[in-house]
Amino acid sequence: MYVSLGMSQSDAVHIFHVVRRDGSELFLHPFTGDESTLTMLEQQPVEGLYGAEPEVSTLTGLRDDLYRIAERSIRRWDAEARFVPRFLLSAAVFVVAFLFFSLVVRDPLPVLDELLIAFGLAAALYTVLRRRGRLSEPVERKRIAVQKQIDAIMFTESDVVSRFENQLHLHEAMDDPVRALRDQREPAFRDEDLELIAEAAGYLAMRYRSLSVRRRGRHLLRSDHVNSERIRKWADSHGIDLRLFTFYLRLRRAVESAAAHLRSR
Questions:
Q1: I need a surface site. Which of 56, 141, 158, 239 has the fewest CB within 10 A?
Q2: How many CB atoms sit inside 10 A of residue 183's CB?
Q3: Is the pLDDT of residue 9 over 50?
């Protein structure tokens, strides 16, 4: 993973490196550890974009995070790919153990003890098979291939990300970020920026996937009368960065408005 001065690929999945007003850094990307993570890493080019050039240590930290995310995705892939044979072997052990302890071993509590012992043996076998699978040759090959893909990610300077950061800084400088939602003042971007800005907004949205947060977001976008102090307390109680959340809502509204404007041309 390194910095390059090359041009962006339009079909790439992007990782956005964003520097906030207080100097803290934020990476926006679609990788969550689910099945789609492996698909994107294996089948699509991945490109990093930045406004202010990140430090090497920052990129190293991102690489390690992506390694961990990819590992979760690989484990899910292995669990799904080998579920049927592991389940059948475990079921066979359950049946054999149940019949053995039912017919050979006599005890004062028939059936109950046999069920518990058979279930325990089957569960233990399934756990052992799953752990061995994570160290198997196919899994290790996939792990190495995915890590190579991560290592090959290049970061390039982007004017779009610079404009994104500028709009974020302006929003974060506001005394009352909730008020900006009521005033209908949207971040200003160029038409040619819309595709990348929409992608970044989509990755921000992944931070706010819980039903209660999405409902609150819709309420803030639709309501003309919002109590800023009440919203601040709500955000604090849910561990939500209110400035980033309200910027996301403004960004979402700006993208939707710009997209509707382009469609109407």
A1: 239
A2: 11
A3: no
* pLDDT value of position 96: 75
Q: Tokens representing 209?
A: 């996937």
Whether residue 179 contacts residue 226, with contact meaning beta carbons closer than 8 Å, is answered with no
Burial of 88 (0-12, 13-18, 19+ CB in 10 A): exposed
Cβ proximity of 152 and 113 under 8 Å: no
Let me know: does 172 contact 20? Beta carbons within 8 Å.
yes
The pair phi, psi for residue 21, each rounded to 5°, is -60, -35
**Tens-digit pLDDT profile for residues 54-97:** 999 999 999 999 999 999 988 888 777 666 777 677 777 777 77
> CA–CA separation, 26 vs 19, rounded Å?
6
Contacts of 103 (CB under 8 A, 6+ apart): none
Give the integer Cα–Cα distance in Å for 160 and 146.
Answer: 28
- DSSP line for the chain: -EEE--PPPTT-EEEEEEE-TTS-EEEE-S--SSHHHHHHHHHS-EEEEESSPPPHHHHHHHHHHHHHHHHHHHHHHHHHHTHHHHHHHHHHHHHHHHHHHHHT---SSTTHHHHHHHHHHHHHHHHHHHHHHHTSHHHHHHHHHHHHHHHT-EEEE-HHHHHHHHHHHHHHT-S-HHHHHHTT------GGGHHHHHHHHHHHHGGG-SHHHHHHHHHHHH-S---HHHHHHHHHHTT--HHHHHHHHHHHHHHHHHHHHHHH-
pTM of the model: 0.77
